[in-house]
């Protein structure tokens, strides 16, 4: 059994971030260690104490192990977990119950589950499990969510380069959670902008995980305060942590998909403060 890869990302003040150069922005907000074969990767953020991670079982199953920093007897002792598969077919085994996950399907695992392992159906096309985990106050039932079961929002237009479908896989209208919300957005060919107009929601943080990008393609992720914007270039299967005070939007060199995960005190998906492009600096 391999030792999990674990990093710790502390919270930052917007006044400090104004002075960050490119390397500092990437150090604090970019997660570029995800989707490593046969390894559990866990990035602990101090924004709502969300963990952003991955598990890619190739040669053997990957076990969701606890780490010393959690001071927990098992990983989900005080946490809930969201899983979305972006790879080949796989299975998540939770306390002896199998949950098959196809590409872009999700699984919610409630607080208290003791044994969680990740499996691929085929090592040549392994499952790639993207993970978000947040503190929980009670147990809610495990739930397998397919693309057909979630809410779908058809947004934007080709004329504004943001024609996209938003799949709300893990919001309160679909599945009960303590605070975790997850879903994915798929941009249509010819569209490159996501989340425009940009917005922020001071009552919760967010993490963006970009995927389905070609090897030579990238997304320019915009963050920062509306009057003090910054940007980070992000490759496929990398993530950006977005503080509550930051906008989050992106523009790619091609169309792409991304998973959004949110945590905080408000489960109202539409609770956001929007900023039209004309108001940004």
From TrEMBL:
<feature type="binding site">
    <location>
        <position position="248"/>
    </location>
    <ligand>
        <name>Zn(2+)</name>
    </ligand>
</feature>
<feature type="binding site">
    <location>
        <position position="201"/>
    </location>
    <ligand>
        <name>Zn(2+)</name>
    </ligand>
</feature>
<protein>
    <recommendedName>
        <fullName>4-deoxy-L-threo-5-hexosulose-uronate ketol-isomerase</fullName>
        <ecNumber>5.3.1.17</ecNumber>
    </recommendedName>
</protein>
<dbReference type="GO" id="GO:0008270">
    <property type="term" value="F:zinc ion binding"/>
</dbReference>
<dbReference type="InterPro" id="IPR011051">
    <property type="entry name" value="RmlC_Cupin_sf"/>
</dbReference>
<comment type="similarity">
    <text>Belongs to the KduI family.</text>
</comment>
<comment type="function">
    <text>Catalyzes the isomerization of 5-dehydro-4-deoxy-D-glucuronate to 3-deoxy-D-glycero-2,5-hexodiulosonate.</text>
</comment>
<keyword id="KW-0479">Metal-binding</keyword>
<keyword id="KW-0862">Zinc</keyword>
<dbReference type="InterPro" id="IPR021120">
    <property type="entry name" value="KduI/IolB_isomerase"/>
</dbReference>
<dbReference type="GO" id="GO:0008697">
    <property type="term" value="F:4-deoxy-L-threo-5-hexosulose-uronate ketol-isomerase activity"/>
</dbReference>
<feature type="binding site">
    <location>
        <position position="199"/>
    </location>
    <ligand>
        <name>Zn(2+)</name>
    </ligand>
</feature>
<dbReference type="InterPro" id="IPR007045">
    <property type="entry name" value="KduI"/>
</dbReference>
<dbReference type="GO" id="GO:0042840">
    <property type="term" value="P:D-glucuronate catabolic process"/>
</dbReference>
<feature type="binding site">
    <location>
        <position position="206"/>
    </location>
    <ligand>
        <name>Zn(2+)</name>
    </ligand>
</feature>
<dbReference type="GO" id="GO:0019698">
    <property type="term" value="P:D-galacturonate catabolic process"/>
</dbReference>
<dbReference type="InterPro" id="IPR027449">
    <property type="entry name" value="KduI_N"/>
</dbReference>
<dbReference type="Pfam" id="PF04962">
    <property type="entry name" value="KduI"/>
</dbReference>
<keyword id="KW-0413">Isomerase</keyword>
<dbReference type="GO" id="GO:0045490">
    <property type="term" value="P:pectin catabolic process"/>
</dbReference>
<comment type="pathway">
    <text>Glycan metabolism; pectin degradation; 2-dehydro-3-deoxy-D-gluconate from pectin: step 4/5.</text>
</comment>
<dbReference type="InterPro" id="IPR014710">
    <property type="entry name" value="RmlC-like_jellyroll"/>
</dbReference>
């Amino acid at each position: 059994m391999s030792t999990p890869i674990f990093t710790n990302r502390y919270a930052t003040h917007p006044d400090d971030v104004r002075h960050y150069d490119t390397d500092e922005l990437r150090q604090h907000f970019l997660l570029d260690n995800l989707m490593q074969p046969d390894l559990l990767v866990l990035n602990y953020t101090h924004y709502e104490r969300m963990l952003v991670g991955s598990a890619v079982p190739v040669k053997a199953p990957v076990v969701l192990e606890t780490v010393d920093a959690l001071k927990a007897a098992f990983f989900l002792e005080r946490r809930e977990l969201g899983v979305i598969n972006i790879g080949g077919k796989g299975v998540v085994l939770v306390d002896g119950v199998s949950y098959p996950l196809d590409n872009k399907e999700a699984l919610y695992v409630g607080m208290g589950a003791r044994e969680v392992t990740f499996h691929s159906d085929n090592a040549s096309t392994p499952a790639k499990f993207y993970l978000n985990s947040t503190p929980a106050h009670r147990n809610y039932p495990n739930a397998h969510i397919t693309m057909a079961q979630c809410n779908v929002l058809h947004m934007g237009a080709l004329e504004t380069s943001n024609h996209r479908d938003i799949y709300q896989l893990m919001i309160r209208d679909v599945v009960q959670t303590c605070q975790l919300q997850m879903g994915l957005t798929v941009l249509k060919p010819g569209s490159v902008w996501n989340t425009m107009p940009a917005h922020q929601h001071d009552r919760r943080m967010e993490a963006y995980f970009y995927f389905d990008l070609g090897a030579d393609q990238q997304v320019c992720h915009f963050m920062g305060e509306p009057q003090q914007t910054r940007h980070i270039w992000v490759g496929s299967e990398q993530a950006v942590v977005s503080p509550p005070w930051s906008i989050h939007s992106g523009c790619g060199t091609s169309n792409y998909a991304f998973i959004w995960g949110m945590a905080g005190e408000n489960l109202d998906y539409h609770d956001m403060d929007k900023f039209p492009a004309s108001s940004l600096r």
